[in-house]
Design brief:
- The complex is a heterodimer.
- Chain A is of the alpha/beta class.
- Helix content of chain A is about 40%, strand content about 10%.
- In chain A, strands 1-3-2-4-6-5-10-11-9-7-8 form an eleven-stranded mixed β-sheet, with helices on both faces.
- In chain A, strand 10 and strand 11 form a beta hairpin.
- The mean pLDDT of chain A is about 95.
- By secondary structure, chain B is of the alpha+beta class.
- Chain B folds into three domains: about 290 residues, no CATH class; about 120 residues, no CATH class; about 60 residues, Arc Repressor Mutant, subunit A (Orthogonal Bundle), CATH 1.10.10.410.
- In chain B, about 40% of the residues lie in helices and about 20% in strands.
- The model of chain B has no long low-confidence stretch (mean pLDDT about 90).
- The chains are: A alpha/beta, B alpha+beta.
- Chains A and B meet through helix 10 and helix 11 of A and loops of B.
- Chain A: Heterotrimer of A, B and C subunits.
Chain lengths: ~500, ~500
């Protein structure tokens, strides 16, 4: 059985149901593919093939006993290193958690297990999810499978690259300012961030609590929908999780919701800083929707230019507090030079954290400090409300919003490594969505002349995942970008 | 110049709940170190707090007991600081929007003697907010060990206005506060177990001035006698400085029990910047007004109100009410007994004299303090005893013997009287004969009685009682003796 590792969840589910393959075969195909290509891609921080095959075997036995659980039963799914999986390392790609093993499963992992999925491997990321290129990992730099000299995006770069390289059937990432959608676009796969609260954050190592969301990477919109259906729901362990509202049978909605839709295009997203090839590609995608009878509405998101500064205040403030627990006292890195409580904290943190994490902790500590709180944090929260207001106003007119996912295709490794501000602009089209708590998906929309993938972002209303999926699915089905794979 | 002290207190009270503030981990004093923790208590990566609504309700009840207004909405803030006993290195507390606002507590100052009621006045409160307790550090010779059992236990912080002017007032306040809290079942307020801890803010100002002087804060006073000693020491220390023309430094001080002195911990300049901000992991709590009304209806009568009522309605003296009303259990025992036999004075006497004496005797011999509920006696025992004395079935003298017996065996008094044959003798013939003997044998006493000395009669009663083993009806005996002397 060849190329099982590049098949979709829905294809494999059909094959499993028909007895044409087994979970052990699929898992073994993924393991073999990883063994073959990961030396080049470096998507995985660790794998546990024995454990994965044991889960696959259990799935096959379930199926043989007539107790198969659903489309995810037996499907190997790679996990970003920031999500807790019981008895697996949880390092967040940081030296700080070098020897830490999680004693429990994140809620999203519990739900995937309940759906029969095979939990497979720990995927590389920017340390503590801070970055846009996966160059901030303390362990390794992941390559973009389409061009090994370029970055895969970040912070869920490992999750995106593993998908593009066929090292998993689906993966999970987390998205705080675009950390799923931007690498999905740069790696030519589907990546989706749900409405804030739709998926529990319990077991997701917090970067910025009010922005973080777990979400899927998949080959197709339909696969992303299947994963979402398995993971959504109010969780008693996460007070900010919310009971789903409206249509949640997404894979069914893909079949029934046909459009035409009213689609908003924010002019602010096509100005300065956008790569001409990306711009042309997204305009072409918009034209396609128009050709299908959709009404394209020019909308304005006037406060979107403030999204990046607001994000770097809110996210760093929360991060400075969330990361305070990594202090060398209990489970995190402890400096050998620690002499007393104060040096235990300062030396352990100084040694354990990388530069980008330190930069953000310092920034966050500053914006929360007394005398500056009102000027920065409080004001940022007010602007955040204005940004949400812009979206709410736009959604009075349209069903979904179309934008580029990333202003540029994948850039060369090291190109922006020393220029944090340039790096921060990688997420300029995704950040406002996190600030507003909305769902958004990136679907492959073509390639640059040099063969690098480009992504189209479809932004939905709060809890409007069903419509958002349907809009993205229509485009995907009419094009073959999602079926293309890099040569490795 | 004459100075007067201005004192404000901050009291931390551990709220009695089955589980901790933000997780289902249990709490119990004295458990083996680090056995009452879970992933949330330890702040493990990925964990999130979930609110314990019982703690909120108990704190609201505390607020209602102390006359506070209960907020429509209360919120959670993070107080950020590094300390090894703090698993997350931030404490969840209510900075901006506490649960209980304002309030006032009636206090009773000590009277001129134990038997005389002192002056009553009110102390105003600023607020009561909820927060989580940190863990406990124990410093040993060359190392410090941490027990996280206490981490996450709900604490109510009661903040008074600077409304007291002497250590006596502060002590009276703490005593009254403790009685009320124990009454309402919110905490046992055992200071030895850390269930109640106090910080004292002290400043001085010239008598007659209404401006506040510079204050110092004395941290973590863990007994009422320490509060008293620390305040007195601080008043003396500040007075000396001011009288010598110096000025007070705003600082935090630690009371040293051993030396009976305090020393500076940190000055205002070194004070922490806690970088408070709203916790993004917890939603604001909307207080259900109907539920608040229910909680208010469940409140017990306040101890000083009850004391007043006993004095006014039941005509009990202060010496008795001050003992009876300090303990809710005791006063409820008393009220229950009244339902069987409505003789407040007799029953109150039995409880405050005999019962408490027997209980403390048991405590002295036994292990821990004995409470009413642990004794074999029920309100019915005491009421029945009072009743059979009132009915003349036994004498008061015999009553004491019956009391001791029923306290030890738990048998009902009437059964004891029956079993031991202690019923008063109403056999006039026998008693009359004994009386004649007594009169004949003690002419001196007869003479004294005739001269108007009523007490002389006792000398005649004695032998009769002795001969009847105390069973002679004293009233009858009295009557008979007088009659026979008159006749003779």
């Amino acid at each position: 059985m060849s190329d099982l590792h590049f098949k979709t969840i829905s294809e494999l589910a059909a094959m499993l149901a028909a007895g044409e393959t087994t979970s052990v075969e699929i898992t073994q195909a993924v393991i073999d593919r990883t063994a073959a290509v990961d030396a080049q891609v470096k998507a995985f921080l660790s794998t546990d093939t024995e454990d994965a095959l044991a889960q696959a075997k259990a799935s096959d036995e379930r199926r043989a006993a007539g107790k198969a659980l659903g489309p995810l039963d037996g499907i190997p799914i790679g996990i970003k290193d920031t999500l807790a999986v019981k008895d697996q390392p949880l390092r967040c790609a940081s030296k700080m958690l070098e020897n830490y093993v999680s004693p429990y499963d994140a809620t999203c992992i519990v739900k995937l297990r309940e759906a029969g999925a095979v939990i497979w491997g720990r995927l590389n990321m920017d340390e503590f999810a801070m970055g846009s290129s996966t160059e901030n990992s303390a362990y390794q730099t992941t390559a973009n499978p389409w061009d090994l000299e370029t970055i895969p995006g970040g912070s869920s770069g490992g999750s995106a690259a593993a998908m593009a390289a066929g090292e998993a059937i689906a993966t999970l990432g987390t998205d705080t300012g675009g950390s799923i959608r931007q690498p999905a676009a740069l790696c030519g796969v589907v990546g989706m961030k749900p409405t804030y609260g739709l998926i529990s954050r319990y077991g997701l190592v917090a970067f910025a609590s009010s922005l973080d969301q777990v979400g899927p990477f998949a080959r197709t919109v339909e696969d992303a929908a299947i994963l979402m259906e398995a993971m959504l729901g109010k969780d008693d362990l996460d007070s900010t999780s919310i009971a789903p509202q409206g249509e949640t049978n997404y894979s069914e909605a893909l079949k029934t919701k046909k459009g035409p839709w009213k689609l908003g295009v924010p002019q602010e997203f096509f100005g300065e800083g956008i790569d001409p090839e990306v711009k042309a590609n997204i305009e072409k995608a918009i034209d396609w929707y128009k050709s299908q009878g959709c009404e394209i509405v020019d909308i304005s998101l006037p406060h979107s230019e403030l999204a990046v500064p607001v994000y770097y205040i809110v996210a760093t403030a929360e991060a400075s507090s969330n990361l305070a627990r990594f202090d060398g006292v209990r489970y995190s890195h402890r400096s050998e030079e620690a002499k007393d409580a104060m040096t235990l904290f300062t030396k352990s943190r100084g040694e354990g954290f990388g530069d980008e994490v330190k930069r953000r902790i310092i920034l966050g500590t500053y914006v929360l400090s007394s005398g500056y709180y009102d000027a920065y944090y409080l004001r940022a929260q007010k602007v955040r409300r204005l940004i949400l207001g812009d979206f709410e106003k736009a959604f009075e007119q349209v069903d979904a919003i179309l934008t580029p996912t990333s202003p540029t295709p994948a850039f060369k490794r090291g190109e922006r490594a020393d220029d944090p501000l340039a790096m921060y602009l990688s997420d300029v089209y995704t950040i406002s969505v996190n600030l507003a708590g909305l769902p958004a998906i990136s679907v492959p929309s073509g390639f640059t002349e040099s063969g690098l993938p480009i992504g189209l972002q479809v932004i939905g209303k709060a809890f409007g995942e069903a419509d958002m999926f349907a809009v993205a699915n229509a485009f995907e089905k009419a094009h073959d970008y999602a079926q293309q794979t890099p040569t490795l | 110049m004459q100075y007067e002290a201005v004192i404000g207190l901050e009291i931390h009270v551990q709220i009695k709940t089955r589980t901790k503030m933000f997780t289902a981990a249990p709490y119990e004093y004295g458990a083996a170190p680090n056995t009452l923790t879970d992933a949330v208590v330890l702040g493990l990566p990925g964990t999130l707090p979930v609110l314990n609504h019982t703690a909120i309700e108990k704190c609201a009840k505390l607020g209602l007991m102390l006359g506070c207004e209960i907020a429509e909405v209360c919120k959670w803030d993070r107080k950020n600081y590094f300390y090894p006993d703090s698993p997350k290195n931030y404490q969840l507390t209510q900075n901006e929007e506490p649960l209980c606002i304002g309030g006032k507590v009636e206090i009773e100052l000590p009277g001129p003697s134990r038997n005389v009621e002192g002056e009553h006045r009110w102390v105003a409160l600023n607020r009561i907010h909820l927060e989580e307790d940190p863990g406990k550090l124990t410093h040993e010779a060359f190392e410090t060990v941490i027990d996280f059992n206490r981490a996450g236990v709900p604490l109510a912080e009661i903040v008074t206005e600077p409304d007291m002017s002497s250590s006596a007032e502060a002590v009276a306040f703490l005593n009254c506060l403790r009685n009320m809290i124990v009454y309402a079942g919110i905490s046992d307020c055992d200071m030895e177990k850390g269930q109640m801890r106090c910080d004292a803010n002290v400043s001085l100002r010239p008598v007659g001035s209404d401006k506040l002087g510079t204050r110092t804060e004395m941290k973590n006073l863990n007994s009422i006698s320490n509060v008293k000693a620390a305040i007195e020491y601080e008043i003396e220390r500040q007075t000396e400085i001011l009288e010598e023309g110096g000025s007070i430094t705003q600082e935090t001080r630690r009371w040293d029990v051993e030396s009976g002195t305090s020393f500076s911990l940190r000055s205002k300049e070194e004070a922490h910047d806690y970088r408070y901000f709203p916790d993004p992991d917890l939603m604001p709590v909307q207080m259900d007004r109907a539920r608040v009304a229910e909680l208010e209806a469940e409140l017990p009568e306040r101890p000083l109100d009850k004391q007043r009522r006993y004095q006014e309605e039941l005509g009990l003296p202060f010496t008795i009410t001050s003992v009876l009303c300090v303990d809710r259990e005791l006063s409820e025992f008393f009220e229950e007994a009244l339902k069987t036999h409505n003789a407040p004075k007799q029953i109150a006497n039995y409880i405050t004299n005999d019962l408490l004496r027997e209980l403390s005797a048991v405590s002295e011999h036994g292990e821990s303090a004995h409470s009413v509920s642990q004794s074999k006696l029920t309100p019915a025992h005491i009421a029945t005893l009072a009743k059979i004395i009132d009915e003349g079935v036994i004498s008061k003298q015999i009553g004491k013997e019956v009391f001791t017996e029923m306290f030890q065996t738990g048998e009902m008094p009437d059964a004891i009287v029956e079993k031991k044959g202690l019923k008063q003798s109403n056999d006039t013939g026998e008693i009359e004969a004994l009386c004649r003997e007594a009169i004949a044998g003690n002419a001196k006493a007869v003479g004294q009685f005739k001269d108007g000395n009523e007490k002389a009669l006792n000398a005649l009663k004695g032998p009769v009682m002795k001969a009847t083993k105390g069973k002679a009806n004293p009233a009858m005996l009295d009557q008979l003796l007088k009659k026979l002397i008159d006749e003779g």
